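Re: the 348-residue chain
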Amino acid sequence: MPRKRLWHALESVPGLTTVAAEWKALAVPDHDTLRSFLRPNGSLAASYPCRQCGCAHEVVVHGEDDIVAACRCESQCPNIALTRSDIILYEVNRSALGKAVASALGITVDEAPVDGLHQTARIGFYSPFAGYRFPVLLTLQYEPDDMRMTVERLAATVDAAFILLAPTAQLLSPATEDLLRRKSAMFISLADALDADEVGKFEALPRCEELLAEFRSRHVPQADATSTAVFFPTPADAEWKDVTIRFVDGHTVAVKVKDKTGVYHYSQMGMADRRNTKPTKQWDLLRDFVEAGGLFTWSHRNASKKMQKHRELLAVRLKDFFRIDGDPFEYVEDEKGWRARFKIMPDS
């Protein structure tokens, strides 16, 4: 079951700083998980929570071994004897929490503060495929007004579609949710999206996968609106050396990039002539690269003065299809020709 108390605890403490006893009371039975994200902040508490009256008692230090929490409210609870370790203040290690959440969600960690916002930071980027990179922000607020101001600030300053994470959805108002929708942002409640074990390792729940799939459907188009061209689901960390293209026949190739595979017609790779749907010169050149063993030079039978232009256009088509940075071809001075940076093979 998701550890709900863990997430609710993070929205129950102003400033995300209090004594260990209060963190424990708020997070039980999930305290062991929360504890892995707490650290002493170097200060001592001026007050201490009382479970009898619910008030915060004043911490009075009479001596190194004589510390009490004195009740100042009408209930006049008896003093609570404390040790120095009892009044150490613990704060949430937001960086450690953000990294653990990012790992569970498959987010590339890239931390950065957000100017003008308290308890809010970018923890990284969601990159479902190469060429698509969406900021992911984690906010830890205490009041609905703070959440509203946070969302308003993000909507005004973040240009791209983004994903906003928060411990729960309890601080969201209808107006705040509407603003996120208009900004094409996805809100994910961690209480509904993640489970955790006792050592603080999170894993995504099915609801989280559903939300990320919805986000991808909005912002990662599967086809160009004006053609039958598609794009390959290239892993975000892939390079040209990870690409293998093998011709199946004159019109189709089998593609593999790391653990992703697929079979594609030349039209799906953006290499169909719109006038007659026949293969373009770029497709022909790709086949020539196969024939030449991946190195196309002036000695090839199909070499011509237009080769450079066709190669440039082929590079554009391949970059559109795979969305990998850099030129897919390199010029080899000794050979006076172009070598593919990817593996290209004939039908075996």
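Residues 223-227 have pLDDT under 50 and may be disordered.
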